[in-house]
Design goal:
The structure is a homodimer. Chain A has about 170 residues and is of the alpha+beta class. In chain A, about 30% of the residues lie in helices and about 25% in strands. The structure holds a DNA duplex (30 and 30 nucleotides). Chains A, B: GO terms for molecular function: sequence-specific DNA binding.
Chain lengths: ~170, ~170
DNA sequence: CGCCACGGCTGCGAAATCCGCAAGACTCCG
DNA sequence: CGGAGTCTTGCGGATTTCGCAGCCGTGGCG
């Protein structure tokens, strides 16, 4: 079950070439495959192969590897509001001490859907998905602020989601 | 080509029942189907049917409808940093006048991947995906700040993406 | 009440797709 | 030159997808 995107670091068989930060090297063909799947995650391998100039089996193997490596995941995405989660918020967090450690702790919370370390007036931005106000309040005040090292937080409750895309590459 | 999630408003055939805000009604079975596809966007219809207690064809129809309605999209998602976009940022924006109008304008920019209207010290949060610093600078300073009505902006450049999930429901 | 239209579900075959396997081609390196 | 590793290709067989026809429960309407 590949839930996380970044965490997976199996590193079993040494790959072609890794750039120094540890991310696997992606050639133009893999990029093209990803691009295809960003348009339609269920597009058949044969169609993708035709588009990128590869055989069906080749595409299948590359896709499988991309999934195994955690470079990409194929999933259904929705507007949470449509699916019954009525409160969402972005929370900006300031940390004293080990930022990475706090980020890890946030990662472990089920309600936290998105965690990114940033430069600027916040150390961390975290997106939270909750069922209602009580739930949201609980997560922010009882759980996040309770983490040792969290100096302060600022919340931005979502009013309306206007855009959500996954198609860099199609430009 | 369903790129946007929220924008789609075809409204051709009147649906079963809509709640007052215009979002289609989702029963427990459709929720369960979405949940299945959040785990694996390529899971076969038959397997989903077995899991939610429906025939293969029924699942197929419901999935197709969910896609057509724009309730859900099945796509590949990646960490943009891995795919060659080296600069990302969240931008908080303050607006004077029509917030919705600014949000629409942001929606039309290719580099803007995520737009949400919020309550709090920003009116809008927008996520930007760029190829390099110059590109990012250009988008923020030349394009966003140039929009009439944008009072001020604050940028949070991404240092590291720690978590990215799409599995509310699997709790 | 009877009738009909409609949406959703089921159960099939036919076509397309997925998947595993084995063999060839290519690159890199000692 | 040889070998290891990876990528690619080309198959069958199992699986899945797709389209269609039929069935059923609901709701509108005379």
């Amino acid at each position: 079950m590949h839930s996380e995107l970044v965490a997976s670091r199996s590193a079993e068989h040494r790959d072609s070439r890794e750039s120094k930060n540890g991310t696997p090297h992606l050639d133009a063909v893999s990029l093209a495959i990803i691009e295809q799947l960003q348009e339609d995650g269920r597009r058949p391998y044969a169609a993708i192969g035709k588009a990128v100039g590869l055989s069906e089996a080749a595409v299948r193997q590359r896709v499988q590897k991309l999934l195994d490596q955690g470079v990409m995941q194929i999933v259904a995405v929705t507007d949470p509001l449509t699916v019954g989660f009525r409160r969402q918020a972005m929370v900006g967090i300031n940390v004293e001490g080990d930022v990475e450690k706090i980020a890890e702790a946030l990662t472990d919370m089920a309600e936290v859907e998105y965690v990114v370390m940033t430069a600027g007036s916040f150390d961390i931005l975290a997106e939270i998905v909750c069922e209602d106000d009580d739930h949201l309040l609980d997560v922010i005040n009882k759980r996040i602020r309770a983490l040792p090292g969290v100096r302060s937080t600022e919340s931005f409750v979502y009013l309306k989601l206007k855009k959500q895309t996954y198609m860099w590459g199609t430009r």
